Predict the 3D structure of the following.
Amino acid sequence: MTKLREAALPALQVDELSVAFSRADGSAVQALDGVSLTVEQGEFICVLGRSGHGKTTLLNAIAGLNQPQSGSIQAMGQQISGPGVDRGVIFQRDAVFPWMRVEDNVGFGLRVAGRPRDEQRMVALAQLENVGLSHVAQAWPRELSGGMRARVAVASVFAMDPPILLADEPFGALDYVTRRQLQEVLLTLWQKTRKTIFFVTHDVDEALRLATRIIVVGNGRILVDMPTNLPVPRSDEQIASARGLELRHLLLHNLGLE
Amino acid sequence: MTSDNTLTAPLKLRGRSAFHQFAVLSVRWGRVPAGTILFFLAWYLLSLTLPDSRLVSPLRVVDEMLYNFVLSPHLQVFGLGRIGYAGLLIYSVKNVLLGLAVGAAIGLLLGLTSARFRPLRYLVDPITLVLGTVPVLVAAPLFLLWFGVVPYTQVLLVGLYSAVMMTIFSQRAVDNIDPVYELAAATRGANWSTRLRLILLPAVVPEVIGGLRVTLASAWGIETFTEILGAPSGIGQAIKTYTNVNNVAGMLACVGLVAIVAITMDFLLQVTARRISRWAH
């Protein structure tokens, strides 16, 4: 495929996606119901919604980690049938491998791809530098704080250089200060690389701080899909501006809180 | 940078005075010999109040161990040949290690594969359940009847129980792995064989080694008991001989030697485990 054609492709194309799960009692839960959306390359999408309304199911479907009942998903024009290196995932739970040192964790994807050891090391150290952790490259994950392990997770995904990055509430378990720091790290990396980021969160403030476009999911459907039209990066004042407040009101209303 | 970037390894002694550090380390490392000394002291005091036919002093037991270690006139008289405790122990240790190695290898393979391959699990689980509930007291005489009073009877029995235990421990180790690790590996391009090699196997090491320690401890019991029932050699035979002549000192010497060897082997396994899985400690 030529570079021009590739540049014109949407990063993600979701068409009439439905996903259902079976409960223990045999009844079915319709987690996603006919969801359609297009994500252009370079967008920073935040997906908001209440717990159990389909945000993570949507992310997992895009990641190829669950099987849709119907519908289709394409990533960069290619049909998704399972997990792939074109869609890096930062999980909600801590997925840093405890039995590998930090540098080996970050270089894991490259090792699997068969890249030379020197290249693995070089890329891993460069990504650790980007997230401010080059000084702990030889540490074991158990020696790191939760915030540091979250940085390692970010570095690990960026090391593979996927065009699309999927993040499932990656900073949800962290304290406010650490979360703000990591948001800045992620925004800086996004501005540098302009990857497409699909970021699931339950935090309205986080969505307002990060997103170029916000989607609200409710009862397995898309309730709201709107651009933020706010500058990137954005200050607290800009988030508290008229446009920011308008967005916040709309989001809270669609989340059933206003 | 904020405190988020400081390593969080516990360093409880940092910043304390030298005397305080010495006191803490003395208590920490002094607990083991202090406990042992107390045990032997209690044993000695108790032996003073009981006849030799019930309990002998630890000093006499140590004397018995040393005197009969290389060559034992007692054992020669009782028909075990020109041998000492060392020779009998070597026989027992060989059987334990051989049975454990074979059984653990089979158990590990079965456990790891059946944990991930459901049809195999449906086959393996009932077998381990049945074999695991048959007491050694029942299985050992059966094995002696089937295979005779030969060394490989003990090896087979130790191997069988080791395989059953390690199957269960390995299955549980795999079941306890957080699924997020394999998912993360899959999203980074790892196929099933890569996930097995780089995710599953390293992740189960601490729990498998823990299971191996328990299996080793029970292997000693199985080996010794089977030797008591009937074997061409082994420390269990010496225990049986001394039981027949009510030689308490000899019995305790044999038990003490088994305990020393078992503790040493467990210690070596612990040291190896700590080295292999240093990421977990």
